Amino acid sequence: LFLPFLIGLVGLRNLGNTCFMNSILQCLSNTHDLRDYCLRNTHRTDLNNNCRAKAALMEEFAKLTQSLWTSSSSEAISPSDFKMQIQKYAPRFVGYNQQDAQEFLRFLLDGLHNEVNRVTVKPRSPMEDFDHVSDDEKGKRMWNKYLESEDSKVVDLFVGQLKSSLTCNECGFCSTVFDPFWDLSLPIAKTSGEVSLMDCLRLFTKEDVLDGNERPTCHRCKTRRKCTKKFTIQKFPKILVLHLKRFSECRVRTSKLSTFVNFPLKELDLREFASDNSVNAVYNLYAVSNHTGSSLGGHYTAYCRNPCVGEWYTYNDSRVSPMSSSQVRSSDAYVLFYESAASSRMKVIKILS
Ligand SMILES: [Zn+2]
Fold first, then answer.
1. What's 18-352's CATH class?
2. At residue 277, does pLDDT exceed 90?
3. Where are the domains of the chain?
4. Which residues have a Cβ under 8 Å from the Cβ of 79 and sit 6 or more positions away?
5. How far is Cα 291 from Cα 297, in angstroms, rounded to an integer?
6. 209 CA to middle of ligand 1, Å?
7. Which InterPro entries would you find in this protein's record (predicted)?
């Protein structure tokens, strides 16, 4: 299979402060499985099965992805039809204001998911009591319950499950809660030097003491107690999106941390953050959304590893240029896209067989 133009090295025109959108679109366009979902028109099958869906956003997203990967010229493409649809779905994207790339990603994935959700009638099942089962079993049941109402290609790829454990400091009783996550927002430790991505993940999962007014009610003591809260990852997604919290607030940005966060391009091993340490949780980086400039004004670009040729490219609105993998790490990195090493290996086997 040799497709000379299927190389995805096409830029997106800036329609006026739309670099946040272009940056995320290029990261998603280089998400192998999502790209193929669009190129093979598989989304249409899901749309057909979902009669109540207004399919406009998914359709425009697929059209744009197809244009990026089948264009016979290297001329930049205008994402204006797509923008029309995303602002219908999320009116906050009307106009030409600079927006936050991570928030845009959340809205976009949510919008796409809703249109291709395989569940057409959400069940109204009563709250079940999972307290008599093991934590692992509870996690599985909660995940299956989530899939009963939210089940799509987007969920297959991006959604994982987080476990939070609350331990009573008085009696030692531990209660657990399981929640789906679409990305992880990681705090950056304030320091004068550089930090590592592992430092950020350790800060995110660090034990947190809830005391004073924050004291939760212990189910065994039947009263409010000082408790310790801790996060672990129960289920790892195929695509892990890590958002570095560089901005002190999302809506009204007051300051930006330009700390250099050192992250690995290959073999990010997250086993120490897993609920079950025997799982395989190794990831490889394939895209980064970067933000340069201050909290008041700035510019977004994307660095993506092309899934066909395996080389890195800079996507700066309409311009696409090759880059060295040694330049991928910078203090501009804002949203990191990792793919599970297990699923990339599967792909190689599929290609070779
Ligand atoms: Zn207790």
1. alpha beta
2. no
3. 18-352
4. 12, 13, 15, 18, 21, 22, 25, 64
5. 10
6. 14
7. Papain-like_cys_pep_sf, Peptidase_C19_UCH, Ub_carboxyl-term_hydrolase, USP, USP_CS
